[in-house]
Each structure stands twice: as structure tokens, then as C-alpha cells.
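re: ur question from earlier - yeah i can do the single chain one, its not a big deal. heres the input i used so u can compare w yours
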Amino acid sequence: MTLQNGDPAPDFTLPDQDGAPFTLSARRGERLLLVFYPGDNTPVCTRQLCEYRDGIEEFAGLGVTVIGISRDDAESHRKFRSRHALPFTLLSDPDLQVAAQYGCRGPLGMKRAVFLVDAKGIIRYAHIEALSLFRRRKDELLAVLAAE
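and the output i got, formated as C-alpha cells:
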């Protein structure tokens, strides 16, 4: 299943870095940027999330909350957030069920992807990388988000 702009975002509940449940539908009223990434402390993922960290005020200025999702567990997420001063929530999808719902589960695990979910729970931007070595850069995303 490939999600397109205008599709309802599949609802899910995943634990965050502190073990607390995060439910997408409970965040209605917010614009969320769901960032699926293969793993904590990997070179490309670290660069990607640190770049988003460095642009967090710009994302917030557009009314967008960044949420990271990988298969790593809460302890790994806590350490990763601390080590890199990441100011956003990281969710654990250990069995890749949510990644599968969003079409970013691959043969080797999670594909790198970003989805902008609007305040009504509708996908307004979807991009799944063909190769995990590439990533959506902050400036690319900010341009898309500003146009929405």
C-alpha cells in the first residue's frame, strides 16, 4: 500500500523514548512531521535528525511538530536523544507494523521516509526514499511545509 497526499494517515499507538504511549489520533489539531528512519546512531540517520534538530525553530514557526520513528527501543532512543540533544519525540516500532502501514517497511528493515500529517489527520506530503543513503534535507522539507 502506498499512501498518497489526501489519504487519511493510518492511526497507531507506539511507545516513546520514556515508554509512554503516543497515539496519532490523540494529536489531532497539530501538524506532525513523521520521520521514519532506519536506526539510532547510524551515520545518515544521525546527520538527518541533527539537521532537523538545528531547524526545530523553523519547523515550529510553520506549526509543525517533528516525531521520529525507528525500530530501536526506548533506552536506545533516550541515549540517542541525550547524545545529540534532540528536542523531539522518538517512537519505537520494533516489529515495523507502523512502518508497514505507511509503506516504508523494506526487506532490510525500515526505509527512510517523511510524512506531513495535517491537523485533521490527512497526509499532505509523503516521501519514501528508494535508497536509505539519501534523506530529505531540512531546507527541502521546510519549502514543502511552507507551501502547505
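The CA atoms of residues 13 and 23 lie 4 Å apart. not sure if urs matches, ping me
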